[in-house]
Amino acid sequence: MLKKILHTVGLVFLALFLQVTLGDWISIQDIRPDFLLIAVILIARSDGKLYGEIWGFIIGLISNSIGVSMLFGLSALVKTITGFISGYLKGSKRSMSLFNYYFIVITIMLIHFIILYTIYYNSADMSLQYIVMRYVIPSTFYTSAFFVIIDNILPQNE
Amino acid sequence: MFKAIYDFIYDSFEYILLGILILLSFILILSGDAPQVDALQNSLSDTFSFLTYPKKLIQKTTGLIQENKDLRRQNLQLIRRNSELIEAYKENKRYEEMLGFRDSIDYRVLPSRVINYGSMSIGQAVLLNKGQKNGVTKHMPVISTEGVVGKVVNSGDHTAVVHVFNDINFRLSIRFMDSRVVGILQPLGDGMLQVRDIPTTAVIHPGEEVVTSGFSDIFPPNLKVGIVDEIKHSETRNYQIATVKPYVQLESLEEVFIILK
């Protein structure tokens, strides 16, 4: 149990470190990969819905505190939902084809970014179509690319 | 009866907790200005600010050589400019005395170092190394030598988070320097800023300087913001839209000043 918690805390700190250190440098046209989202999905996939939603909430709060200062609680909201949904992936990497597995992960990320950006950019003078094309889809694919890499580097502990 | 309730809670615990966490998130979003939420945000940003130090260290080392070159070039220009400004200042003082104006710039500033900028996937914020222990509180304006940077949205004991001007939710009351027209500045999302709803009768030209209007409770007047890049008419031609290029380059921002109230 303790080993499991330490493993998760380690993963969260690694994600935070990557986000803070690399987030700005590897941004393309203001689009940054969300390493914290990757951490939430990996935790939920490994430990299930319950841990996914709890860690999603905690990671969301931390993310809100050191990054986005407005709408405190928004990241916690979306990452809690993401953690819960990703929990359904527990044990799925072995049981389903790789294509289906990554397709579901990308869909989860898409849902995450749609909720996040539509609420955050609500007050901006931008159409939903523009927000989706300019922010949601690029962020989803940029984060997915890093997810595939990290998912294959980290030891599998489903 | 109790066993049935217990069984229900046990079986649906994940869903009940999900509901509680979503509710908690909504409460946090809706009570953004509550002191308890502020306190939570401040303590979290203070606690995790140590994560930004490695990035700052790398930036500091790699940026010093280039910064030195830039500063030498800037220094030469400033020496020349300084003598011109001294003359203009003296002249301005004479006019002010003649008109009975008093010097209105009487705010104190606190220098601060930027320890992190915009690393999250959404939103724009800058983390500073000064906080409540240095007298920094919420809603204090933050400027650099180039112009307006943003405003403090929360401050921990030793750090403060600044909501910067290019965040999509930032709004600033501004004035066009030459035409004296006022407007509300908002970011476009691509590094440029925009002022909408300018009357078609207003004569604004590209290259015109944009400063704070002073109508806001937060920003004092005449702080530099940017320069007009382009003027265009709205689709209905009822008003004009000005695109403004900000003076401050947030990516290379290192030192700022917090205006203490």
Structure description:
The complex is a heterodimer of chains A (158) and B (261). Chain A has 158 residues and is mostly helical. The model of chain A has no long low-confidence stretch (mean pLDDT 87). Chain A has one domain: Arp2/3 complex 21 kDa subunit ARPC3 (Orthogonal Bundle), CATH 1.10.1760. In chain A, 75% of the residues lie in helices and 0% in strands. Chain B has a domain at 172-247: Rod shape-determining protein MreC, domain 2 (Thrombin, subunit H, Beta Barrel). In chain B, 34% of the residues lie in helices and 29% in strands. Chain B contains four helices and twelve strands, in the order ααααββββββββββββ. Chain B has helices spanning 2-11, 13-30, 35-47, 53-99, and strands spanning 108-117, 125-128, 141-143, 148-155, 160-164, 172-176, 182-187, 193-199, 209-212, 224-233, 239-246, 255-260. Chain B is globular, with a radius of gyration of 23 Å. The interface between A and B is large, with 56 and 49 residues.
CATH homologous superfamily of the domain at 172-247 in chain B - what is it?
Rod shape-determining protein MreC, domain 2
Estimated share of beta-strand residues of chain B: 25-35%
What does the overall shape of chain B look like? globular
Can you give the mean pLDDT of chain A? 87
**Gyration radius of chain A, to the nearest Å?**
15 Å
Text of the CATH class of chain A:
Mainly Alpha
**Number of E strands of chain B:** 12
Q: How is the quaternary structure best described?
A: heterodimer
Average residue pLDDT of chain B: 83
What does the largest sheet of chain B look like? Answer: 6 strands, antiparallel, barrel
What is the CA-CA span between the terminal residues of chain B? 61 Å
CATH topology of chain A: Arp2/3 complex 21 kDa subunit ARPC3
Q: Pairing-aware structural class of the strands and helices of chain A?
A: mainly alpha
Order of helices and strands of chain A: HHHHHHH
Spatial sequence of strands, sheet with the most strands of chain B? 1-2-5-4-3-12
- Shape of chain A from CA axes? globular
CATH topology of the domain at 172-247 in chain B: Thrombin, subunit H
User: What is the CATH-assigned architecture of the domain at 172-247 in chain B?
Assistant: Beta Barrel
Q: Main beta sheet of chain A: strand number and arrangement?
A: none
